[in-house]
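Slide 14.
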Amino acid sequence: MKHFFFTLFAICSLTVFAQKQDMSKYLAGAVPEKDGMVVFDKSYDVPNKTKGEIYSLLKKYTEDEIIKGEFSLEQSRIQDADSIQGVLVAAVEEYLYFKRTAISTDGTRFYYQLICRVDDGKFNIEIRRIRYIYDITDTPSTEANPDVCFSAEDWITDKEALNRKQTKLLKMPGKFRRFTIDRKNEIFSGAAIATGAVRKMKMVEVYE
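Slide 15: predicted structure.
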């Protein structure tokens, strides 16, 4: 019996530790700023692929998965597509859900600019000019309300979304910060997989 309770305590402790570790990715430094603007960016190596090949794959990914994505809204579009210079720019409007059930929905209209800069064997992907129009109704509003429109710089930075000790997320801006970071990670990972920069992980079933 003592062994059972010791094992149970160890499992609970590991679970709590894992949760704390998981939350750490949203804390200080998780939302970088450049010249006063929130800017997420990451560079990937894509060995054995030319600029043209990478550019084509990124363009298809952006069009199919971002512009025409499941939660994409009407203003999403390609702003600039220059395969010679290796620059692809998209203005994106989508719905970012915080909670979605049969009886209630909580989410926001999420706007950002997506920029890809491509060269032989590599690319950089960037998200900037982030803003939100918060809507707590079950159906996304079709009219922008200035009273609930705010920018990432005013809402999800370390200063605005963390407590003074920078050890916890504040309730409301922290929610926006967390889901924005998760969405950014999803977009970047999708681009990396689409170009072959990283391989898609396969689920492996283990039988005992």
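Speaker note: The longest helix spans residues 171-195.
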